[in-house]
Write a structure and sequence with these properties.
The complex is a heterodimer of chains A (506) and B (430). Among the domains of chain A are: 3-131 and 276-311, no CATH class; 321-364 and 379-430, no CATH class; 438-500. Chain A is 53% helix and 11% strand. Chain A has 21 helices and 9 strands. In chain A, the strands form 3 sheets. In chain A, strands 6-7-8-9 form a 4-stranded mixed beta sheet. In chain A, strands 1-3-2 form a 3-stranded mixed beta sheet. In chain A, strands 4-5 form a two-stranded antiparallel ribbon. With 430 residues, chain B is an alpha/beta fold. Chain B has 14 helices and 13 strands. Chain B has a 6-stranded mixed beta sheet, sandwiched between helices. In chain B, strands 2-5 form a two-stranded antiparallel sheet. In chain B, helix 7 (165-199) packs antiparallel against helix 8 (207-226), helix 11 runs parallel beside helix 12 (354-369) and helix 12 packs parallel to helix 13 (385-396). Among the domains of chain B are: 26-37 and 47-55 and 113-127, no CATH class; 160-239; 249-428, 3-Layer(aba) Sandwich (Rossmann fold). The chains are: A alpha/beta (506), B alpha/beta (430). Strand 5 (408-414) of chain A pairs antiparallel with strand 4 (87-89) of chain B, so a sheet runs across the interface.
Amino acid sequence: MNQAKAKRNFLSTGSDWTFDLIETYDKEIGKIAAEFGLDTYPNQIEVISSEQMMDAYASVGMPLGYHHWSYGKQFLDVEQNYKRGRMGLAYEIVINSSPCIAYLMEENNMMMQALVIAHACYGHNSFFKGNYLFKTWTDATAIIDYLVFAKKYVQECEEKYGIEDVELTLDSCHALMNFGVDRYKRPVPLSAEEERARVKEREHQLQQQVNDLWRTIPKSEKSGDGSGSGESFPSEPQENLLYFLEKHAPLLKPWQRELVRIVRKMAQYFYPQRQTQVMNEGWASFWHYTLVNRLYDKGFVDDGFILEFLQSHTNVVYQPAFDSPHYSGINPYALGFAMYTDIKRICENPTPEDREWFPDYVDKPWLEIVDFAMRNFKDESFILQFLSPKLMRDFRMFGLENDVLDPFVEVKEIHNDEGYRMLRDRLAQQYNLSYREPNIQVQKVNILGDRSLILKHTMNGDRPLNDDTVEVLKHFRRLWGFDIRLESWGKEGLVKSYTCTEETDS
Amino acid sequence: MSYIIDRRLNGKHKSSVNRQRFLRRYQKHIKKAVEEAVNQRSIKDLNRGEQITIPQEDIHEPSFGHGQGGTGSIVHPGNKEFNTGDRIPKPPGGGGQGSGSGDASDQGEGEDDFVFQISQEEFLDYVFEDLELPNLLQKELKEIKEYTLKHAGIVSDGTPSKLNIVRSMRNAQARRIVMTRSSKRLLLELEEQIEEIEKSDSALKDEALLQELLLQVSQLRQKIDKTPFLDSYDLRYNHHVKEPKPSSQAVMFCIMDVSGSMTQETKNIAKRFYILLYLFLRRNYEKIEVVFIRHHTSAKEVTEEEFFYSRETGGTIVSSALKLMDKIVKDRYPSNAWNIYAAQASDGDNWDDDSDTCRKILEESIIDQVQYFTYIEITPRNHQSLWYAYEQVQNTHPSYFSMRHITDLTDIYPVFRDLFQRRLHESSKS
């Protein structure tokens, strides 16, 4: 290294940041990122105060959202914890939009700002632009406009129909938010302009569609179960509960349908993020580490800077052991960072074990392989594809199985030759949303009878539903307008059924 | 290409609407907490916010998820001694860390209640919600009789009595320096020339030139001397503007019976009531004075300490306190300058023939001067003559006088609210 010469190139000394310095750092980091071939949206770096950061937290990082009490609750919660020193604020929040908005906190020192720029503006940013899930599910150029539309629409509804009613509808939608995504169907991209232009038309159309469905109802309300008579509706089970309600709930008013749609669109927008936590954070951490180290190699930052950086970085990717008081599951930063670093290692310095496990990747250019890994996977498949035996050993992973009736927990496999594949499957399953969340679908509507609706919960590993179920059903009933029955089906048949008939409150 | 934006200046309190929504939704909880706090806190304590606790089940946002039970599966890091097939006993209570049921940690929400802080402002807002000082509005409208003179800078004309000497002299000096500068420089030069000529040999002396120079010097001196020491331009005057002075001061009379029949408990109840009144006034007036009058057979003005805690016994003559109050008002708190509030607490004991005297004093003198007179009777027993005498006053002056009956500590707050309930319909009266 040409250290002696490099010494003169420090972009800054000391810990204070200025806007000029941020610009300089961003320029240099951007240059390095381009050398590595990172493809990004333009960046919009916003410096904010800690209070604004708490605001951002409360609104799931969205720069603007409609008003709802639950965001107020979240804000109070964050504020309380922050004030008591129970938690630090995240150093950054980044939004999947184009330009990609990244928040920097003013309290951070220059090193942190540089770390955040590398992490968010080049790491996350390129992930948003490259990963297939984000490409499929979200439209980065339109999200901000859509948020503006949603906020305005909700506000108008509040003016027209009262805060109370809007809040009730939103509460119910939020309760079903995680069941407002199409898991398999590719969505139509969001476009605020079209939304606005078509909202009137859609209100009309939707109502029309609903009316058509219900027009077939004969005069006599009680005509048995309606099971034997004619075709059943829906013709196939529906997994997107919010979509189903939006399209088919008989009593919703047009504006309520639009609210359901807004919440559904939000859910869909966040869906990729929930599926790529490890990949996304790992990717960003891998790149902030690589980019800032490169800054140091080029002599742009001094020793103090890089030492402080390494300390922060180590904290971010720290994985406490399961028996540590700090343990709260596997740290996605740690796992993701380790995996990308490991992929690079496999490409550059493969061991015989790697040659056996990853014959396609050894001795390939690492940049190509990590890029491939970033673009074409979600957490579940990423782990299945790339988690190496070495990492399982490094993390000292072990798999447990727990039957509620058994007073013991059984260690199913550990980090050894017999265990690697099973362990990897088990870990991957953990990141599979359809394993994590119960499988609940609309099974049948009694369209000829009392309009009651049956939801079917297909149990996975005999796991029952949680205590919220009755509450959520009330919300579902509020939107549907008629009686609901939820049936939990296990391997041996019907296990439990919940019914929700009269709306008790409101 | 990156854009860098400083967002710190805008968008503060972006969440305030959401916060308001939240507070609105949980109003019931907050009000209950505030009410409890008012009853339980000690006097000086009402000056801070309050911690509000809402049970988790009331605030929880439900969603479908897996509950306890069935077969769970999880991968943990940090294995030390486990081997395949090991069976680890579950910790009692189940579901905790390391039990292998990943669902417990997936739930996110803990079992803790939701706790948050409301500020002192918000706290007091809840305490005084829907309350308004009676007749405050009317008083404000008619009471703008008083003016204060406020400094409003310096102006160039005014009456001699408002002359600002320092500023005027400073201006004068500046003007003199400016006006004589060039003459003085010339004078200096001429004097040097003269000196030079005078030093030189007498034969060479140019008498004519010397005379000429001396003449010029004397002319310059005259010119400088003529520069006025103080010119009318220099004068500056203090400027004052008349500002209407809102009646921003209030005096609160606390009158309490300390005769033998009053127990410490009744006194404590009364104390709470005074605290509330004081806090309430403090939010509406800049300056508040409090006068404590205690009485048994004779009345005495005392300090707060003495008022609440010192012990004395004797009979009861309520009118003595009213007389003293009337006197103090006339001496020190003229009703055109002060908003006068009075709060009297008693257990209802009085000499029988004194009650009517009390009524007379109130009706004839006190009631015309006060904004509001409240009487609370703290007793579990039946009313006595004083109550009935005061009832008459209430009937004749319903918007200036009110009375309530309190039996125990938790009654205070509702009674207080009751007493000062917004009286919209009464604004037409009086």
